[in-house]
Amino acid sequence: MLSLRTILRATPPETMNGSSTVVLENIRIGVSKTTGNGKAVCRSHTPKETQVKYTTSVEFEGRGPDTQVVITCSCPDHMFRWEVALTKKGGSRIMYSNGEKPVVQNPTEKPGCCRHAFSFIKLLQRKGTI
Ligand SMILES: [Zn+2]
Fold first, then answer.
1. Nearest to 7 by CA among 72, 55, 54
2. Is the predicted pLDDT of residue 108 greater than 80, yes or no?
3. 18 C-alpha to center of ligand 1: Å?
């Protein structure tokens, strides 16, 4: 797992700004059967992404800035920019990408997150879940 602090520090400002329009639906918060950690899952999209709804998940352990998390999202930004970089540091799993380095989108492999995951994290923080 990887700390929330590390991920939020690596997430670009434009992603954080873009997260304000993200709509989160079907939010479910429970416990992962495989790891025993907390797990939150939702469907996410923005008004421009009405044709597609993504699946965003945050597995978590602990609370506050040092909460340890594993993030996944089915959107292209997560797949092409963040999934491999996060997975190398324990902050995601290869679920949607082919596992190859994000040579174009994220050559320095910063462990940030997409706007859906960012929006979901902010919601979970407001709710006091993480
Ligand atoms: Zn996403």
1. 72
2. yes
3. 11
How far is the centre of ligand 1, averaged over its atoms, from the C-alpha of 99 (Å)? Answer: 17
Rounded distance from Cα 48 to ligand 1 centre (Å): 13
Distance 43 CA to ligand 1 centre (A): 10
Summarize pLDDT for 24-73 with one digit per residue, the tens: 999 999 999 988 999 999 999 998 877 889 999 999 999 998 999 999 99
How far is the centre of ligand 1, averaged over its atoms, from the C-alpha of 25 (Å)? Answer: 13
Question: Looking at residue 127, what is its pLDDT?
Answer: 95
How far, in Å, from the CA of 34 to the mean position of ligand 1? 23
Q: Which CA distances in Å does 57 have to 39, 66, 71, 103, 121?
A: 7, 18, 6, 25, 9
Q: Which amino acid is at 10?
A: A
DSSP string, 21-54: G-EEEEEEEEE-TTT-SEEEEEEEE-GGGTT--E
Q: What is the mean pLDDT of residues 112-119?
A: 97
pLDDT at 6: 97
